[in-house]
UniProtKB/TrEMBL annotation:
Domain DUF659: start-end pairs: 1-117
Pfam families: DUF659
Lineage per the UniProt record: Eukaryota, Viridiplantae, Streptophyta, Embryophyta, Tracheophyta
InterPro entries in alphabetical order: DUF659, RNaseH-like_sf
Protein name, entry field: DUF659 domain-containing protein
Length: 248
């Protein structure tokens, strides 16, 4: 299995892990900054790892679903007939959430507004204290399994704390603060007090939460999700259709 990430120096690091009935172990990390862009180079890198582990020991290679990895996976299967390449299920679902966020206007508009609210509050210490007073200590940001899942979980947190946020931005403490008089403060206040914003959050979550349930399934460590993923995706599609009155 491959797990790619970018470090503080903007280098592309790829971790290689090996899974067996005895569990998952870390094999090695590679600085792939110079080779991760083309399918040919990715293929050479993956092929060398298979060679190191031993082809007889490899049944399946799992990577993300980027075009270069997809092409490299096909090349690997052509060379080594006894193994299979499979895209990471979590990455596939995350790409669906990315399409929501970037290609559906209501998502494209609502998510940045939610992020502006959290960024505005959490970058100012006095506002964090004010927020926690009204939310009884609850946070507005919830880390997710993936980058785009986090966006929707944050929208969910905002909606859970809708009443507290409205009370906060209509309170005397807020109105007397110096931030209430700034352009940014007025913009955030208008968003929080906009009924349309909260309605749009509900619409966004109706489409996203069924997919996030699938993400949680494929990310669990208790048991393999391979035998469950297809049914889970069918159920997610049905939930989304029902949420929008079966409109395709």
């Amino acid at each position: 299995m491959t797990d790619g990430w970018t470090d503080k120096k903007r280098r592309t690091i790829i971790n290689f892990l090996v899974n067996s009935p005895k569990g998952t172990v870390f094999l090695k990390s590679i600085d792939a900054s110079a080779i991760s862009k083309t399918a040919e180079k990715v293929f050479e890198m993956m092929d060398s790892i298979v060679e190191e582990v031993g082809e007889d020991n490899v049944v399946q290679v799992v990577t993300d679903n980027a075009a270069n990895y997809k092409a490299a996976g096909q090349m690997l299967m052509e060379k080594r007939k006894r193994l299979f390449w499979t895209p990471c299920a979590a990455h596939c679902v995350d790409l669906m959430l990315e399409d929501y966020e970037k290609k559906i206007p209501i998502h494209e508009e609502t998510i940045p507004k939610g992020k502006r609210i959290t960024t505005f509050i959490y970058s100012r210490t006095s506002l964090i204290s004010l927020l926690q007073h009204f939310t009884k200590g609850r946070d507005l940001v919830r880390p997710g399994i993936t980058r785009f899942a986090t966006s929707y979980l944050t929208l969910g947190c905002l909606h859970e704390n809708k009443g507290a946020l409205i009370r906060m931005f209509t309170s005397n403490e807020w109105k007397s603060s110096r931030y209430a008089k700034t352009m940014d403060g007025k913009t955030i206040e208008n968003v929080v007090l906009d009924k349309g914003f909260w309605s749009n959050i509900i619409i966004c979550l109706k489409g996203a939460l069924p997919l996030i349930e699938v993400l949680r399934l494929v990310d669990m460590d208790q048991k393999p999700a391979m035998g469950l993923i297809y049914e889970a995706m069918e159920q997610a599609k049905e939930k989304i259709q029902m949420a929008f009155n079966a409109i395709k």
